[in-house]
Design goal:
Layout (H helix, E strand, L loop, with lengths): L1 H22 L5 H7 L16 E7 L7 E7 L7 E6 L19 E2 L6 E3 L6 E7 L7 E7 L5 E7 L7 E9 L7 E7 L7 E6 L6 E7 L7 E7 L5 E7 L7 E9 L7 E7 L7 E6 L17 E2 L6 E3 L22
Antiparallel strand pairs: 1-2, 2-3, 4-5, 6-7, 7-8, 9-10, 10-11, 12-13, 13-14, 15-16, 16-17, 18-19
């Protein structure tokens, strides 16, 4: 019961407050609101002084006013009025969301430029490639919109590929370099160039310049058979191929029992080397040519018996003839 009384009291106070506000309103405000056409000039409800709400029926732009209806926001208050809204200089209708390199961002109605046109982002694009012998062309095009910002011809690259052999201009030897002429392998290119070729290696063999002997060394050179250049050389040792044929003296005489020895000197010119050579056993010295029944055939030096003494070949020989009255022998 108490709560109902409090609610009724609140409603009565609200009605009295509204009547007070209307009675105590500023002089002429209601008339001003009634005569107003600009909805933005009405700060509050002329009936209850509550805040108002403007509902736009036509949006104001940068070149034209808008239209709308103002209503009181207080529940139960039915005040409303129609009117206009001033131009909105910030409510532009732009051609695009942001400026590009092909157009600025500007208002389609008033021409206001919000963002200036951006510079082109250009790079060089080859439209005709240069070759080693002919020029080409390139364009400076925008990578965003494709606009052409310029163009220019490009010179020949001169990047020849000299890999096509034509002919030998000069043959290389082991003493001098040569040259071969090569043409550019790019189709249609007449350019050519001479390329140096390396010297050939020497064709060498060993040549004796000082012959070795049996007692002295020599020398040999590694000599080119084409140009004669000597690329190496070395001394050679003595050959030691002595020719011991010059008899000097008997060192020990040979007998029929043992070998002897003799000193021989090398017969090569200027060589004094000597060596000892064995001499063979000599023949026996026989007492006679053959054995007889008187004596054997034997060496008078060593006593070697080559043939033993032969047996006698005997027969009876009458030395004293027997007689009739005496014997014989």
């Amino acid at each position: 019961m108490k709560e109902k009384k409090q609610g009724l009291l609140k409603r009565i106070l609200a009605v009295l407050l509204s009547v007070f506000m209307i009675v105590s309103g500023l002089p002429g405000y209601v008339e001003e609101v009634a005569a107003a056409t600009d909805l933005t000039s009405i700060p509050y409800c002329p009936v209850c002084r509550s805040s108002i709400k403007v509902t736009y029926t036509k949006t104001a732009t940068c070149i034209s006013t808008g239209e709308g209806v103002a209503t009181c926001t207080k529940s139960g208050c039915t005040w409303s009025t129609t009117g206009t809204v001033p131009k909105n200089l910030n409510n532009h209708r732009y051609n695009q969301s942001s400026a590009t390199c092909s157009a600025p961002k500007k208002c389609l109605d008033c021409g206001y430029v919000a963002e200036s046109q951006k510079a082109h982002t250009c790079e060089w694009v080859t439209t005709v490639a240069s070759t080693c012998h002919s020029g080409g062309h390139k364009e400076y095009n925008c990578t965003v919109c494709g606009a052409n910002c310029g163009g220019e011809d490009t010179p020949p690259s001169n990047n020849h590929s000299f890999s096509r052999f034509l002919y030998t201009e000069k043959a290389a030897t082991c003493t001098s370099k040569g040259s071969d002429v090569y043409g550019c392998s790019t189709p249609g290119c007449p350019a050519s160039i001479a390329k140096e070729t390396s010297m050939l290696p020497h064709t060498c063999k060993w040549v004796t310049t000082v012959a070795s002997t049996c007692h002295s060394g020599g020398h040999k050179d590694y000599k080119c058979t084409v140009c004669g250049a000597i690329t190496n050389g070395e001394d050679t040792p003595p050959s030691n191929n002595h020719n011991f044929t010059k008899f000097v003296r008997t060192e020990k005489a040979a007998t029929c029992k043992e070998e002897g020895s003799a000193i021989y000197q090398c017969s090569n010119s200027g060589c004094t080397a000597t060596t000892s050579k064995s001499t063979p056993i000599v023949d026996h010295k026989w007492n006679q040519s053959a054995a007889t029944c008187k004596a054997a055939k034997k060496c008078t030096v060593c006593g070697y018996v080559a043939e033993p003494q032969k047996a006698h070949t005997c027969k009876w020989v009458t030395t004293v003839a027997s007689t009739c009255h005496s014997g014989g022998h």
